[in-house]
Q: What sequence folds into this?
């Protein structure tokens, strides 16, 4: 359940930060009359995300009658979820420092067009997070049919993210968002590795990949699946006592290089020349002032 809580917290906080940036920009620009359009776009994005999640679950449980088809569907969604997770954490790492300015620029353009453009801007800013959350949650919660725990954990993570977002917007709470996204990103990479491992197992059960009975090791005597800690590891990172060879190859081949790439220090850009220093500094000062006006300070 921790994995689904982390998914809800991470995705929810990203969406909350996006919405807070949009709202703060409108408030600072004396355009409160456009706030209803922002909330309408956010509401529509949330509704479509819930519908998308329901469609995935309905397809798996009702439309696919053969067990092989269900296993193949779950395997494909698992791989898609891993792709989304990987893209999301690297995108957020790269765009964290510029997302506020980009959103303000797009919202300025939308304000010039009209109310529908403002609603569409808010919708597009949130829908990506919502669709990712639905897909990743479905993949992470596989094997928990009939158990409401993962869903409650996801909702708890989203609620926590909304509370944090409101406190950040009100400047009542200051956290180091860079460190937050780094630590949660690293944990999500391990979650994604577990999802990929689960997807490989589903491909094997569907007959697409061989080696279903070729175990890499069997430590059931040490890691009893019936114990609480084994259930915790399986729920968080899909750590199982008897994985197949292909499962372990997939886990290591994904987790090790992706973690190394994600955790390596970012390269510093070369210092600007004397000719461009003034322009760069002025742009940075303007961006810093706008950032301070619309987003909470970071520790």
A:
């Amino acid at each position: 359940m921790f994995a689904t809580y982390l998914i809800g917290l991470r995705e929810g906080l990203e969406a909350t930060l996006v919405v807070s940036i949009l709202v703060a920009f409108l408030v600072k620009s004396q355009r409160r009359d456009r706030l209803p359009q922002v909330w309408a776009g956010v509401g529509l994005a949330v509704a479509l995300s819930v519908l998308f999640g329901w469609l995935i679950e309905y397809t798996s449980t009702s439309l696919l009658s053969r067990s092989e088809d269900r296993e193949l569907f779950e395997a494909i969604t698992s791989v898609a979820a891993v792709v989304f997770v990987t893209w999301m954490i690297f995108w957020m790492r790269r765009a964290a420092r510029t997302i506020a300015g980009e959103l303000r620029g797009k919202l300025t353009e939308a304000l010039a067009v009209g109310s529908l453009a403002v609603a569409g801007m808010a919708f597009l800013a949130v829908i990506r997070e919502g669709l990712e959350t639905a897909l990743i949650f479905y993949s992470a919660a596989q094997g928990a049919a009939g158990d409401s725990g993962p869903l409650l954990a996801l909702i708890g993570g989203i609620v926590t993210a909304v509370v944090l977002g409101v406190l950040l917007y009100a400047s009542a709470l200051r956290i180091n968002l860079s460190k937050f996204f780094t630590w949660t990103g690293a944990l999500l990479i391990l979650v994604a590795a577990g999802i990929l491992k689960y997807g490989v197992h589903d491909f094997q059960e569907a007959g697409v990949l061989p080696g279903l009975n070729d175990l890499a090791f069997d430590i059931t005597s040490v890691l009893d699946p019936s114990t609480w800690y084994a259930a915790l590891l399986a729920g968080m990172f899909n750590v199982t006592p008897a994985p197949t060879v292909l499962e372990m190859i997939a886990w290591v081949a994904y987790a090790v290089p992706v973690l190394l790439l994600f955790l390596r220090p970012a390269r510093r850009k070369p210092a600007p020349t004397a000719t461009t220093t003034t322009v760069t500094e002025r742009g940075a000062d303007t961006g810093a002032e706008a950032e301070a006006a619309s987003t909470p300070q970071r520790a």
User: Anything to note?
Assistant: Residues 274-299 have pLDDT under 50 and may be disordered. The chain has ten helices and no strands. The longest helix spans residues 35-63.
